[in-house]
Amino acid sequence: MKTALMIISCVLTFNSFGQEWKDTLNEARRLYKKGNYKEALKYYKRAERLAPNDVDLSQEIGQTAYRANDFGTAAENFERQANNAETKQKEVSARTSLGESRMKQQDFQSAVDTYKQILRLDPDNEKARQRLVEAKRLLEQQKKQQQNKQDKENKEQNKDNQNNNQKDQKDQKDQKDSKDNQNQQDQKSQEQKSEQKKLQDKETERKLDEFSKQELNTKKRLDGSKGTTGGKRARKDW
User: Fold this and answer.
1) Are 48 and 72 contained in the same domain?
2) Residues 33 and 65 in one domain
3) Confidence (pLDDT) at 1
4) Boundaries of domain holding 22
């Protein structure tokens, strides 16, 4: 009895789950027909998550994403559709849509590769040949623009580097001049101090000389005074 109830429950759940993804898919298709591609894409993505593994919605999602201007999602689904295509005709159709999505993305290198793949599958495909020529032209134009942009950036960078070098050189020169000025001031100050010291030394020597002369004169006077007194006493005693 319990087993039967479990089986019935699983069946009901599965049916409910299956009905949900189908309802979601129907809503996505309804919105697509109304031209509301962005909303339709949301429902398509949800339906894809809920759908059984053997259900492939890549074509519908790719077309919806392309019309919603979501070219990255479109390219991803067209490529998946092309890889899973059962016939050469379906693969060519999917890769044609893939090439157009790459062109809208301005991924011209990938577009060139895609159109080459189409021509390998269908050498007489004139549309693919024309789109290949256009993709190559746009690729070369894109490369030139990128190169010009790079050259401009390099030129501006070189100019900035040159300005920075000139500024560094000026700063170094200013620092050197400032250092030289400081050295000159220090040297001048040192010379002034040396000159002052010489003057002080001369003044000290002059004062010492005067002091020595005064001391010598004083000594002479003292010596002369002692000699006179001694002579008188000598004569008197004698």
Assistant:
1) no
2) no
3) 47
4) 7-52
Amino acid at 220: K
Distance separating alpha carbons of residues 66 and 74, to the nearest angstrom: 5
**Dihedral over alpha carbons 99, 105, 109, 114 (to 10 degrees):** -10
What is the distance between the alpha carbons of residues 169 and 171, in angstroms, rounded to a whole number? 5
User: Domain with 135 in it: what CATH number?
Assistant: 1.25.40.10
pLDDT reported for residue 7: 38
- Residues 138, 72, single domain; the answer is yes
Same domain (yes/no): 100, 127: yes
pTM recorded for the entire structure = 0.61
Cα-based distances in Å from 25 to 14, 31, 56, 73, 76: 17, 10, 12, 18, 19
Tokens standing for residue 161: 């580097």
Q: How many structural domains are present in the chain?
A: 2
Give the gyration radius of the chain's Cα atoms. Answer: 53
Judged against a pLDDT cut of 50, whether residue 233 lies above it is answered with no
The closest alpha carbon to 105, from 60, 69, 145, belongs to 69
